[in-house]
Amino acid sequence: MKTLLAVILSGITMVCTAAVDEKRAEANYMLNCQGCHQGDGSGLPGSVPNMQNFVGQFIGVPGGREFLVQVPGSANAPLNDEALAELLNWILLTKSKKELPADFVLYTATEVSAVRSKTLPDVAAARKAIVKKFVKQQ
Question: Residues 13-27, buried b or exposed e (16+ Cβ, 10 A)?
C-alpha cells in the first residue's frame, strides 16, 4: 500500500512539475526573489523569512495559499499573473516539496489574478496568524 501511494504521489508531482517551465521560473526567482530570500530560499534571519523546507506548509492551512500571492514581494513583482503563478509553483516544488499537502494543486493565472490585488494591511501579523495554524494541524 505504501509503495502504491508513493507511486501515485510521484506521478502527481511529475505532472505538477511538467506544468512549470523550470528555467523561466528559476530566472524569475533570481531576478525577483533571490536578492532577499537567497538562492537556496533560506532568507535572512530576523528580516526575510526562510522558504526552504517551510513555505509549503502555507498551502495546507486556511488563508495560507492566498497569503503567498498577497505578500508584497509576490503581489508587487513585475510579473504578469501567469508568470507569478508559475514562479510560486516552482518555489513550492523546489524549495518545500516535502511540506506540500498530498492534494496540492498548482496555482493558476486566474487564481493569482483574483487574489493578488487584495492587499494585506499588516503582513507580519497575517503571517504570524497563519504560521500559528501550522502547529494546530500537526
Answer: eeebeeebeeeebbe
Q: How far is Cα 122 from Cα 105, in angstroms, rounded to an integer?
A: 27
37-92: pLDDT as tens digits: 999 999 999 899 999 999 999 999 999 999 999 999 999 999 999 999 999 999 99
SS3 43: coil
For the domain that residue 58 is a member of, what is the CATH number? 1.10.760.10
Instruction: Determine contact, residues 88/66, Cβ cutoff 8 Å.
Output: no
Amino acid 87 reads L
Length of the chain equals 138
Closest CA to 25 of 94, 71, 72, 75: 94
* Domain extent for 84: 2-137
